[in-house]
Amino acid sequence: MNEPCLFESRKVTTDTTSLVSYIPIPGFGVLPVNAFVIHAKQPMLVDTGMAAVRKDFLGELKSIIELKDLRWIWITHADMDHLGNLEAILAEAPNARVITSYIGMAKMGLQGIALDRVYLLNSGQTLDIGDRKIRAVSPPTFDAPETTGLFDQKTGALFSADCFGAILAKPVETALEINSQDLLEGGQLWASIDAPWLGIVDPGKFKNSILSLNDLDPQVILSAHLPVATGMNSILFDNLSEAYKTPRFVGPDQQALEKMMVA
Ligand SMILES: [Fe+2]
Ligand SMILES: [Fe+2]
């Protein structure tokens, strides 16, 4: 794979569909980039994919749900792999309101948008979307201060934003297909890239932040950067608790990059 591409979407809980794309990470492998549709009474899109796959992403999204039926668009954080198609979707989804935090609103430049199209929700708060409550949660690792994950109290799905992501050798359908060593190393590599501050945190406090997710007892972990992980809580929690030991990632410099591109 040498460019970002969209794969077929797949059902990841009884009423959640994942829009799956992958981006190549030259020299390292591939990174999944997932968005999700929760088919709730008030349907919700979680993140909006990458602009690089816009045409395919919008086509796939429209095959899953009519955009006029979309009531909520949850933006976990304002990175381009989560925000890439927000404007295009908003233009065709007149009934959708963007859920973010105060910082997220500022970073996305949404101050100018009509107030009734934005909804501010902080970690710990819940939102009723008709047939279930969605709770905003703080993932233990993140690369942006506004990052807010969510817990679907009906399906038990935890949407963890960047947290629990992994760089993989190749695309796979579920995290269960990744061998345990690759999952550990790919996850630690991703954590060292996405959360370069991990090495300077208090390991005890960091582990407590993971335990608070354990208390939710998620049925499935839906990371933006890992294939669907069902029944893998203890593996993912254990792997992440050790991630602070991985040295901060330093990417290839210009010379190394040019060599890699030639190869
Ligand atoms: Fe991010
Ligand atoms: Fe991301």
Note down, in words, how this protein is organized.
With 263 residues, this protein is α/β, with parallel strands linked by helices. The protein has one domain (5-252): Ribonuclease Z/Hydroxyacylglutathione hydrolase-like (Metallo-beta-lactamase, Chain A, 4-Layer Sandwich). 28% of the residues lie in helices and 22% in strands. The chain contains eight helices and 14 strands. The protein has helices at residues 54-64, 80-83, 86-92, 102-107, 180-194, 203-214, 233-241, 254-262, and strands at residues 5-6, 10-13, 16-25, 29-38, 44-46, 72-74, 97-100, 118-120, 126-128, 133-137, 149-152, 157-159, 220-222, 229-230. The strands form two sheets. Strands 1, 2, 3, 4, 5, 6, 7 and 8 form an eight-stranded mixed sheet that branches. A six-stranded mixed sheet has the order 9-10-11-12-13-14, with no helix packed on it. Strand 2 and strand 3 form a beta hairpin. Helix 6 (203-214) packs antiparallel against helix 7 (233-241). The longest helix has 15 residues, at 180-194. It is globular. The mean pLDDT is 95. Bound molecules: fe (ii) ion (FE2) (2 copies). One fe (ii) ion is lined by residues 79, 81-82, 162, 224-225.
